[in-house]
């Protein structure tokens, strides 16, 4: 459904306020050919109304000759900032970068954040941004969950479909994503609403069953036949099933990179306004699937890089896979029971 400019401008004002953007801040909007024009227009107006100093940096797309499909996360190779010293300097000198292009999993992004610049990614359609507009309550809930996850040393995930996965934790931080770039050096994504960490390298073992109705990203499709993964010492060792499993396997094999099989981030969704069913209402080139990543009570796991939190893997492969109806336990204590988030006792 179409969104009025007024509603989207007001949404940007709320996000910018909660992200501590103020008059005199230097803000750079990072854009490319796929940037939504209404999102850009509303952001500029909202920033100007706050008295920010606004710049726009438009960069050409890359990786089209390597990617399978048009999702910006289908191939994480070079970025438009690779070797672009002038663009990198402009972003590093900004107080806030609003990423309307999708810059992720890159050494350039780490360099920008290391200098204290904040980055907020916002590439979903305007109506999705509006529906999952971040709030103070979202921030508090996700940060509380991150504290629980950060204190844990083991995550166990189980499901009636057959998932039984154990991951050792502690080597990497717990990361809250709540849609606000509110601290120096912070990256976040509007819309979001989930918590994640990375298992210790080599510390994941067990079985994952991607059941019917679970979602594959960046393919942005619901699984129709179960895919069974065997995980040993942090890597996917086998992929079994029917046609869905064959397509899954072929996609990974196309990267010709053993690090593509590694377990990456793990966590669960906490966004009550995200919908498991939303992906069925969008074409594959319209959304990157943040509803699927954030819907409340999912178990979200990924495969591929861990370099964004100081790990050693920088593979171009990345998949996010949210699972339905799982139970998640931290050090034996349930935080999600069959897809239902369990809030801590008051």
What do these coordinates show?
The protein starts with a helix and ends in a 5-residue tail after the last strand. β19 and β20 (340-341) form a beta hairpin. It has helices at residues 5-18, 37-50, 85-92, 107-114, 126-131, 136-151, 243-253, 290-294; strands at 26-31, 53-58, 96-99, 118-121, 154-159, 164-168, 175-177, 187-189, 194-197, 204-210, 215-216, 221-222, 227-232, 235-241, 263-269, 299-303, 319-323, 326-330, 333-337, 340-341. It contains eight helices and 20 strands. The chain has two domains: 5-131, Rossmann fold, CATH 3.40.50.2300; 136-341, no CATH class. The chain is globular and about 55 Å long.
Task: Quickly give the structural class.
Answer: alpha+beta
What percentage of residues falls in helices of 4 or more residues?
10-25%
Order of strands, widest sheet:
14-13-10-6-5-18-19-20
For the record, the count of structural domains works out to: 2
Oligomer: single chain
- Major beta-sheet overview: 8 strands, antiparallel
Element pattern in H and E = HEHEHEHEHHEEEEEEEEEEHEHEEEEE
Can you tag this structure with a few keywords?
alpha+beta, Rossmann fold, 2 domains, 8-stranded antiparallel β-sheet, 5-stranded parallel β-sheet, 8 helices
Quick structural overview:
This protein has 346 residues and is an alpha+beta fold.
List the helices and strands and how they pair.
Blueprint (H helix, E strand, L loop, with lengths): L4 H14 L7 E6 L5 H14 L2 E6 L26 H8 L3 E4 L7 H8 L3 E4 L4 H6 L4 H16 L2 E6 L4 E5 L6 E3 L9 E3 L4 E4 L6 E7 L4 E2 L4 E2 L4 E6 L2 E7 L1 H11 L9 E7 L20 H5 L4 E5 L15 E5 L2 E5 L2 E5 L2 E2 L5
Parallel strand pairs: 1-2, 1-3, 3-4, 4-8
Antiparallel strand pairs: 5-6, 5-18, 6-10, 7-9, 9-15, 10-13, 11-12, 13-14, 15-16, 16-17, 18-19, 19-20
Helix pairs in contact: 1-2
């Amino acid at each position: 459904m179409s969104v009025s400019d007024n509603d989207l401008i007001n949404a940007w004002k709320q996000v910018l306020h909660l992200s501590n953007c103020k008059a005199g801040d230097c803000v750079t909007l990072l854009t490319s050919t796929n940037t939504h024009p209404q999102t850009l227009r509303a952001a500029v107006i909202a920033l100007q109304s706050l008295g920010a100093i606004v710049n726009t940096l438009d960069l050409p797309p890359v990786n089209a000759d390597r990617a399978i499909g048009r999702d910006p996360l289908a191939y994480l190779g070079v970025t438009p900032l690779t070797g672009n010293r002038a663009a990198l300097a402009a972003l590093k000198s900004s107080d806030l970068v609003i990423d309307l292009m999708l810059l992720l999993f890159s050494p350039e992004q780490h360099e920008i954040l290391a200098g204290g610049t904040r980055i907020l990614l916002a590439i979903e359609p305007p109506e999705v941004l509006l529906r999952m507009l971040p709030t103070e309550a979202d921030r508090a809930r996700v940060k509380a969950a991150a504290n629980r996850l950060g204190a844990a040393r083991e995550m166990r995930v189980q499901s009636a479909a057959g998932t039984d996965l154990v991951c050792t934790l502690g080597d990497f931080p717990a990361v809250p994503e709540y849609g606000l770039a509110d601290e120096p050096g912070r990256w976040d994504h509007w819309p979001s609403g989930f918590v994640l960490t990375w298992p210790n390298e080599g510390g994941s073992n067990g079985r994952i069953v991607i059941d019917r109705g679970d979602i594959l990203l960046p393919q942005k499709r619901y699984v129709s036949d179960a895919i069974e993964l065997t995980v040993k010492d942090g890597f996917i060792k086998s992929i079994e099933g029917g046609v869905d499993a064959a397509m899954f396997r072929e996609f990974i094999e196309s990267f010709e990179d053993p690090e593509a099989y590694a377990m990456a981030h793990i966590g669960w969704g906490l966004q009550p306004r995200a919908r498991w069913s939303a992906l069925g209402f969008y074409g594959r080139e319209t959304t990157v699937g943040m509803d699927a990543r954030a819907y409340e009570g999912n178990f979200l796991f990924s495969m591929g890089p861990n370099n964004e939190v100081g790990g050693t893997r920088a593979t171009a492969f990345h998949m996010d896979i949210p699972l339905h109806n799982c139970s998640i336990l931290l050090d034996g204590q349930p935080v999600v029971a069959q897809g239902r988030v369990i809030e801590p006792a008051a």
